[in-house]
Amino acid sequence: MTDSVFTKIQKREIPSNIIYEDEMVFAFEDINPVSPVHFLIVPKKQIPTMNDLQEQDKILLGHILLTASKIAKEKGISDDGYRLVINCNKGAGQTVFHIHCHLLGGRTFNWPPG
Ligand code: AMP
Q1: Active-site residues: which are they?
Q2: For the domain that residue 41 is a member of, what is the CATH number?
Q3: Of 11, 55, 87, 94, which has the fewest Cβ atoms less than 10 A away?
Q4: How many domains, in total, are found in the chain?
Q5: How remote is the CA of residue 77 from the centroid of ligand 1, in Å?
Q6: Does residue 110 belong to any structural domain of this protein?
Q7: Quick check: is 112 in a domain?
Q8: Whose CA is nearest to atom 20 of ligand 1?
C-alpha cells in the first residue's frame, strides 16, 4: 500500500500543524476547515475506509474517540458542543482513503447534516 497523504503528514514528509501524537494516533488541523475548530484524528495504521475495519481494530477505534474527546476539552469546545464525523466512501464525501475522524466545533451545527 502506498502512503496516504495523512501517513506522509505523520512522517513529516508533508507539512502540517500536528497538535497531538501517541503510539496509535495523531491529530492535526484540517487544511480546509469547515468550522472555527477543525481537527482530524487519524490512526497510524493506514485503514482505507470504515468498511475495512476488523475485530482487532476495536481498541484503536475507541482510542480515536477518546482522543477526540480529550482534544475537544483542551480546545475549549466541549461545553458548547462539537461534532465528530467519519465519512465512509465517496457517497458520504470521503476524499482521503485513510480513515479519520473530523472534530468540528466553534459554531452551531444543523441536523440533519448536509
Ligand atoms: P474526507 O473528505 O472525510 O475524506 O476528509 C478529508 C479531509 O482531509 C478534508 O477535510 C481535507 O481538507 C483534509 N486534508 C486533505 N489534505 C490535507 C492536508 N495536507 N493537511 C490537512 N488536511 C488535509
Answers
A1: 100
A2: 3.30.428.10
A3: 55
A4: 1
A5: 21
A6: no
A7: no
A8: 31
Nearest to 69 by CA among 101, 47, 94, 46: 101
Q: φ, ψ for residue 79 (rounded to 5)? A: -75, -45
Confidence (pTM): 0.98
63: exposed, middle or buried (Cβ count in 10 Å: 0-12, 13-18, 19+): middle
Secondary structure (3-state) at 26? strand
Q: What spacing in Å lies between the alpha carbon of 96 and ligand 1's midpoint?
A: 7
Structural domain harbouring 56: 5-105
Domain annotation covers residue 113: no
Write out residues with Cβ below 6 Å of ligand 1: 5, 14, 16, 30-32, 40, 87, 93-96
Q: pLDDT tens digits for the chain (114 residues)?
A: 899 999 999 999 999 999 999 999 999 999 999 999 999 999 999 999 999 999 999 999 999 999 999 999 999 999 999 999 999 999 999 999 999 999 999 999 999 998
